[in-house]
From TrEMBL, chain A:
Domain of life: Bacteria
Organism field: Streptomyces lunaelactis
Protein name, UniProt field: TolB-like translocation protein
InterPro entries (alphabetical): 6-blade_b-propeller_TolB-like, WD40
Pfam families xref list: PD40
Amino acid sequence: MTPDISGPRARLLILGLATAVLAAVAVVATVRAADRAGERDRARPGEPVARAGVVTLRQQGRLLFRNLAWGPQRDHISSLPLTTMAGPRTAAPRNCLRFHAAAGTGICLRATGGVVPGHEAVLLDARLRPVRTFPVPGMPTRARVSPSGRLVAWTVFVSGDSYAGGAFSTRTAIYDTRTGTLRSDLESFTVVKDGQRHRAADHNFWGVTFAAGDNRFYATLATGGRTYLVEGDLARRTLRTLRENVECPSLSPDGTRVAFKKRVPGAFADAPWRLHILDLRTGRETALAERRSVDDQALWLNGHTLLYALPGDFGADLWSIPADGGGAPRMIVKSGTSPAVIA
Amino acid sequence: MYLSAGRAADTAAGVRSTPPRPPRGTGVRRAVAGNVIALGTVSLVTDVSAEMVTAVLPLYLVVGLGMSPLAFGALDGLYQGATALSRLAGGHIADRAQRRKLVAGTGYALSACCKLALLAATTPWAVGAVLAADRTGKGLRTAPRDALISLSCPQEEQGRAFGVHRAMDTAGALLGPLVAFAVLWAARDGYDAVFVVSFCAAALGVLLLALFVRDTSTRTPDRPVKRKRRGRRSLRTLARTPGLPRLCLIAALLGVVTVSDSFLYLLLQRRLDLPTAYFPLLPVGTAAGFLLLAVPLGRLADRIGRRPVFLAGHGVLLMAYVLLLGPWGGGTAAAVCVLVLLGAFYAATDGVLMAAAGPLLPPHLKASGLALVQTSQALARFAGSLLFGAAWMYLGPGGALTAATAGLAVVLASVAAFHRGSHA
């Protein structure tokens, strides 16, 4: 008897069988992915060792960062002495996607639990305890605390969600811990470009870095397909463009230089950035000796060395490079990202 | 009442002559054609698949591949145009071969394969190429699928049929992200599992189409026409189809003054001072409104006429703009109103436009005709977006919305006046 595939019963049978096969494939794929995720909670030989312990923002001479090594301490804020950064790391039970700290204030951008992913910014005290929580409308990308610990800033990507389509925009907020004022969106500030007020629907800001004095700051403005270094005045709520092709500025401890990533011609379109230093007084740019594309907001380890993350085996590693254009890149913290120096 | 394929073809073929009106059963709810339900199910399952991917793509690119999303955003413009072109191509090929189901199925299958291809794509360019192919598949299938819906039911039920289809489609779109996040919740960072599950859903959609959707034979008695000339000939026929150029014009004129969703959500969040954390929920609200209102408004369009409902839909949009311009501060209630109005706007226009265009078209040109209407609307909306962006730059957000409101009011008033005068 030859089966008649045009009959309604035969069609339902085919549908039932195919649905069962497809459902089985879907379940197997999910279970296997879940198993793989479980592996990340087990430490791996050869990886840096992280031990649970006490981490505070008052212990001087230490580097704090998000630990990425596999094991139970993965994603926890961890600490290493600045002198021996290859040793075992101390991890606090505080997990963050992005982190920064200075002078007893910490900012932690993290995912909230639940099926639908959400994110929040958590202001931390010197013992990494939450002080205040702010909901954020997207994926965390940058976090910074001012040198005095008074101001904090964070940037998230507002990807909207499925219904909004593939366009991305950023949202940058600045919070004043002394007055309790939250500027939830830099886009409400007045932008002055080439001496004139500039309005556009596509203003995007990210990567704040604070100057001493807790009023002046620098950030990236993207508009019309170009990026600019902007100097912000928090009290006057203004942003002034200084220079084109500057992303993710990072102000040096003495406030005279800005490390940033710059799009260079001839590089791959998806990895076009090279680290540069801009002298704010002379306007001179210096290319750094790192030849790879760096998609991170660099951090000044001290007055003459920069720290930045590059993709690594377990997410990212932290590398250092002299800020004068010489030397060579050196990996100083394996499996770590989002560094903060407690000097 | 189950509508046989033959019956549908008969009805559809009688576009120029008056079709035999089926008895209008007052109070008796008649079932929608089985083919429409089948196509709706295909769309539902496929939209679950598509929206799963769209929902996790930003996370995947940033967390999974460590890519900066702005780098990816730059690629977005690259494949935006792909859909418009492939939609026209899909409509044309489907009509020329009179194989709507085959062309639609090819589109669905192409998109399904793209879900697997995402597993291998690890650079922004590769992801961009896969998404372009995915959108080409979406473009290809849209017009033949709408032609199948239109051919599957009598003229006086087009609005309801498209309403049912769009509601099922939107239900899938709402479910997709939930399925995706459930997979990620079960398997942390399991983006590959999301893509595999999405592929399984897409494959099920293709299978449902193959098994349960019927194509209708509308082959006209073959005239010896040279293949080369056929394209131009069908375009000429479409241009001469009574009512079609005018419908395209109306859709385009109103499309230019329609502010794109992303701008509206941005304005909504700013002007009503909504907490930014609610931002991702705004499109969900619109989709929910669309889902609930698509069928009732489709039925209404069948009863009182599709063009009045289509115009009224834009009237509702005008109300949303005015509400946004009003002096409201911190208004969650105002936000809900705007979202419901937006949902109603889509419910009164998206399927209804197809329901208005369907009966005008000869059966053998149904797919290309519908593609033409959709594309003119889409291109006009794209142009409107550019204009609105420019207006935002020079007039600020409030000024731009005021301009768009004035534009929409003027266009709507003149179209309505013209419509009344023409008795069409």
